[in-house]
Sequence to fold (239 residues):
Amino acid sequence: FNTTANQTCCACGGGTTDGTVTLSPTPAPTPPQNECIDNPVGWYDSAGPDINCEYLGSVYFDGNTCGYFGDLIENFGKTANQACCACGGGIANGTATHTLAPTPVPTVTTCTDNPVGWYDRDGPFYNCAWYSENAIINGTTCWDTGDFFENFNTTANQACCACGGGSTDGTATLSPTPAPTPVPTNSTSNVTTCTDNPVGWYDRDGPENNCTWYSENAFFNGITNGTTCGDIGDSYENF
Fold:
C-alpha cells in the first residue's frame, strides 16, 4: 500500500491525527479454479456401464489404470483418456457444453427354426421342440446328437434355434412335405408285405429283445435318445 509500519501504525509513531485516514484497498478475489466435468457425462467404455470414469479412477494396474487402458477401449466416440477427468480428459466447467452419453438401446433378435417344421431323420416326433425339451447323456440333446440324424439336408444344430441354429434374418423356409403314402388298390399285386427274416429272430441278449421289442422301444442305456434301431440296430448280432 506504498507505506511502512512506522508510517502507518500509531504504535510505531505513525498514523494520522488530522482525521484524514484512508481505507486499505480490498484485495481482488482469487478466481475459482476451473472444475472438470467428464465429457460426455456418464461415459463408460464398450465393455459396459460398470467400466466408467469413476471405476477407472479408482482401480490401479501398477498405479496407472488410465495409462494401461485409457487409449484402448473407445465408446461414444471417445476413450477414457479423452472423456474422464480422472484420466486427464473431460472438460473445464464453462469452456464447453457437455453432452450426456446416449443410453444403449437393447437389440431384440427373433429366431425362427429353419426350415420351419424341421425334424430329424427318425421322424416328426424328433423335432426342434423335442431337442429343446430333452436333456440327455452328459448334457443336452443338441450337444450329444445335434450334428447327427440329418434331415432335409440339415441337422438339429443347424435348423433349431434351441440348438444355436435357425434363422434371425427372416429367411426361414418350410420343411418339404413328405410325399403321401400311396393307397393300395384292391389288387393284391400292389401290396408289399414284409416278414422278419429269419422269422423269430432276437438279438444276442436273448429272446426278449426280438423284432417286436425293437419296434416298440426307443432307448439307449435306459435313456430316451432317438430310436432303438438307429442307436443299436447294427449291434448285438445273433444267428
The chain is about 20% helix and 0% strand.
